[in-house]
Amino acid sequence: MSVGDNKISGRSNDPDQIDLIDLVIQLWRGKVTIIVCVVVAIVLAVGYLAIAKEKWTSTAIITQPDVGQIAAYNNALNVLYGASAPASLQMNVIGRFSTAFSALVETLDNQEKSEKLTIEQSVKGQQLPLVVSYVGDSAERAQRQLSEYIQQIDDKVAKEMVVDLADNIQLRTTALTDSLKTQEVIAQEQKDLRIKQIQEALRYAEQAGVTKPQIQQTQDVTQDSMLLLGSDALKSMIAHEATRPLIFSGNYYQTKQNLLDIETLNIEKAKLHAYRYVMKPTLPIRRDSPKKAITLVLAVLLGGMIGAGIVLGRNALRGYKAKA
């Protein structure tokens, strides 16, 4: 026997080396076992697919509402405050929607049977548009439930806006009414003061015996020179001032007009919306889980691995017993 034959014989008898051909032969001889394991794994996979809860995701994209959708709200603000509307009332309406929707997300997640509802930015770093999605156990339910949740938040935000406007209408009405009363009191006081001044001038004219006008130009008459109009003229002026209506400034009538405009507001009938669809809730055509193809492929691979392990383990055990 040559030296080369001894080396080959030594390698083939080395227990630490693996003979791939021998492994293939063992696996081929145990193919029935492997096939059985694969079939069992496929059956289990099919059973899992039959009973596993399906997950379907419906998605929608929303953004800031159109001007027409909040026209009544903006018009009411203009009537109430004009160009000086508080910034807190002119806040981004979609911000209200996003906040309320996020609260609903947390509520659904903390239920005993949690529901997966999400809201996030469509483009990272940009506030709008927003992507909202819902995971349901069927495509139709996911789409329907997402639409219902969006509508629920829209109704909630619209009601909040109406309540805010109602509170501001009440406050503004009270403020304007108080302003009118104040201006009326001031106008009455001015009228009373005017009459007192004429009465004082009449008293001086009677004491001085001035009964007829002593001046020709009445527009230059002052409080000190009013007695020169004569007692007859002053008595006539007092009677005229007593029946004369109160004199108001232009601000009084502007305030009254604002109050009338506010009283005609009927915000409760306005249809307000806090969002606009960029993409309506989709009807998913592919479920998220379970994945049929991936599940079956994994079942075949896992069944084959288990079958191969059984065959090799059984042969190794037989060899060990034979040596023993």
Describe the structure in your own words:
Helix content is 61%, strand content 8%. 19% of the residues are buried. It is of the alpha+beta class and 324 residues long. Strand 2 and strand 3 form a beta hairpin. It has a single domain, classed as Bacterial polysaccharide co-polymerase-like (2-Layer Sandwich). It is rod-shaped and about 155 Å long. It is built from 9 helices and 4 strands. It has a 4-stranded antiparallel beta sheet. Helix 6 runs antiparallel to helix 8.
Concise structural overview:
With 324 residues, the chain is α+β, with helices and mostly antiparallel strands. The protein has 9 helices and 4 strands, in the order H-H-H-E-H-H-E-E-H-H-H-E-H.
CATH structural architecture: 2-Layer Sandwich
Task: Report the helical percentage.
Answer: 55-70%
* Major beta sheet, strand line-up: 2-3-1-4
- Say what the CATH topology is: Bacterial polysaccharide co-polymerase-like
User: What is the overall pLDDT average?
Assistant: 83
- Shape verdict: rod-shaped
Specify Rg, calculated over alpha carbons.
46 Å
* The CATH H-level homologous superfamily: FepE-like
Give the N-to-C terminal Cα separation: 30 Å
Give the number of DSSP strands: 4
